[in-house]
Design a protein that fits this description.
This protein has eight helices and four strands. By secondary structure, the protein is an alpha/beta fold. 30% of the residues are buried.
Length: 135
């Protein structure tokens, strides 16, 4: 199963006290995890917030981030077909355009979208998008 993880999932994996999200990303052998390069921008933009909110020291947090990244394949957004970008735009334009690359990638590789953002998922469902991964 191809699962596209958004920034929210990686944030949760880093901040989770019980490591459930992190373990899902690192040890799930039945799934292939993908994300967009945009995720790195979002993580670094919010680095201070993550460090402050995490129950881990910065060094341990960076180690966890490294372990998570090793289990995710990064997909070049430039390779996503224009029709998938257009469909993702229509789905995300009145929700949050920062989610558009992840939705476009889900369409591109015929995967399942993993996000912890319930508002996003509800709005996408209302537009007929039901390609979600629920662990």
């Amino acid at each position: 199963m191809k699962i596209i993880v958004d920034t929210n999932i990686v944030f949760s994996a880093l901040l989770s006290g019980d490591n459930a999200f992190r373990d899902e990303l690192i040890f799930n052998e039945e799934a292939e995890f993908y994300t967009c390069r945009f995720l790195i921008v979002e993580i670094f933009k919010n680095k201070e917030k993550i460090v402050k909110s995490s129950k881990l020291k910065e060094e341990a947090l960076l180690e966890a981030f490294h372990e998570i990244l090793k289990s995710i394949e990064f997909y070049n957004e430039d390779l996503i077909d224009e029709k998938n970008w257009k469909e993702a735009y229509e789905l995300c334009k009145d929700i949050d355009l920062k989610d558009m690359p992840f939705v476009a990638l889900t369409l591109e590789i015929d995967g399942r979208f993993g996000s912890g953002d319930e508002v996003l998922k509800d709005n996408l469902r209302n537009k007929g998008f039901n390609r979600f991964f629920t662990p």
